[in-house]
Amino acid sequence: RNAVFPHGHQGNALLSKFPILREQNRDISIAGHEERGLLHCVLALPDGRELHAICAHLGLLEKHRRRQLDLLCELVNDEIAPDAPVVVAGDFNDWRASGHRLLARCGLQEVFHSTYGRLARSFPARWPLLPVDRIYVRNARAREPRVLSTRPWSHLSDHAPLVAEIEA
Question: N or C: which end of the chain has fewer CB within 10 A?
Answer without folding.
Answer: N
